[in-house]
Write a structure and sequence with these properties.
With 332 residues, the protein is an alpha+beta fold. It is built from 12 helices and 9 strands. Helices cover 41% and strands 19% of the residues. The protein has a 7-stranded mixed sheet with strand order 1-4-5-9-8-7-6. Strands 2-3 form a two-stranded antiparallel ribbon. Strand 7 and strand 8 form a beta hairpin. Helix 1 packs parallel to helix 4 and helix 5 crosses helix 11. The radius of gyration is 33 Å and the shape is elongated. The mean pLDDT is 87. Bound molecules: 3,4-dihydroxyphenylalanine. The site of 3,4-dihydroxyphenylalanine (DAH) has 11 residues, from strand 8 and strand 9.
């Protein structure tokens, strides 16, 4: 091999090396006892050379060997800095096609999509805590201690008196206190209820709560925002209708249905409860109900992801079954 060739292969070998062990092999190949560079000197017949030629050869050889040593050192520094090392039992040198890529869970994907839509309408995204005070989960939402609504939601109580939030409505109070009025915010997150599990009930599920508070917010704003939002999610013009519904934290309260041909049949599907925020709830959040009004809605994020992707059993989402996850990986 010619000098230039040896130099070039050394460079490309060093560039490919990702771990200390590989680097030791490359060093041996070029600079070891029987290495390509070392052998250059062994194979030269000095007896036929003039002093001048010998000197020239010696200086070229030394320069090359020193440069090679320096390049190996630089590669060692790079490997150490990358933190990659053969001692980690992970093969960074596997070709990319052999790696299994992860996928975004369908619920999270639906959440990200919805967040984008609401952000484009001027809403802030707020997450909050999964363990909240009893006050935030119930009292601040106009649900007094002996109110039957507390039984509607089978609550997990923590030993310190806090609760695992049974709904994302628990964020309403904090958002009003922290953001003040006027405000537009959504709160996606995980909720917990001590449910008997079946194809539509899980003890761990996702909701996405939203609220808009301002000086002239009315039911018309609620309908308009919901219609725009659903049309963006389903990528087609969506019709909505309101029916009366009861929740202690809204007055009037509604059930919002949307018209769809999902599943081939044109029908109304019950989607989410909503309503005009109860004055007591505004008051508890430090917002003056005489000046401000607002609407709120509670979307079942898990349920929407089921509708959107045609998932028949809610329990599939929490099962960590690779066959489920891989179907969604394909559509990433
Ligand atoms: N928090 C209620 C639940 O989980 C849902 C809900 C109803 C939220 C009405 C709202 C609302 O914001 O206005 O059952």
């Amino acid at each position: 091999m010619k000098l230039a060739q040896i130099q070039a292969t050394l460079e490309s070998d060093l560039a490919d090396v990702q771990a200390e062990e590989g680097l030791a092999l490359v060093r041996a190949r070029y600079l070891g006892k029987d290495g390509l560079i070392t052998n250059l000197r062994k194979n030269v017949d000095f007896s036929t050379m003039t002093i001048e030629e010998k000197r020239d050869f010696g200086s070229t050889f030394n320069t090359m060997r020193d440069a090679a040593e320096a390049a190996v050192k630089a590669a060692a520094t790079r490997i150490a800095a990358s933190g990659r090392n053969e001692s980690l039992k992970f093969d960074f040198t596997l070709p990319a096609s052999d790696r299994r890529l992860g996928a975004i869970h369908p619920i999270v994907r639906t959440q990200i999509e919805i967040e984008d839509i609401f952000r484009s309408m001027g809403f802030t995204v707020y997450t909050g805590d999964e363990a909240v005070s009893e006050f935030e989960n119930f009292d601040a939402l106009n649900i007094p201690g002996d109110h039957p609504a507390r039984d509607m939601q089978d609550t997990y109580w923590l030993e310190n008196g806090m609760v695992l939030r049974t709904h994302t409505s628990s964020m309403q109070n904090r958002a009003m206190r922290q953001l003040g009025a006027p405000l537009r915010a959504i709160f996606p997150g995980r909720c917990f209820r001590n449910e008997a599990l079946d194809i539509t009930h899980e003890n761990t599920f996702y909701q996405l709560e939203g609220m808009m508070v301002g000086t002239d917010v009315s039911v018309a704003n609620l309908i308009a925002v919901m219609r725009d939002f659903l049309s963006a999610v389903f990528r087609t013009e969506i019709e909505v209708r309101l029916r009366p519904g009861f929740f202690p934290f809204v007055e009037p309260g509604f059930e919002l249905d949307f018209r769809t041909t999902l599943g081939g049949v044109r029908r109304w599907v019950e989607l989410m409860p909503c309503g005009m925020i109860h004055p007591a709830v505004l008051h508890a959040g430090g917002v003056d109900p005489a000046r401000y009004s607002g609407f709120a809605f509670g979307l079942g994020l898990t349920r929407l992801a089921m509708l959107k992707h045609g998932v028949p059993d809610v329990r599939l989402f929490n099962k960590a079954d690779l066959r489920v996850c891989q179907q969604f990986q394909a559509t990433l």
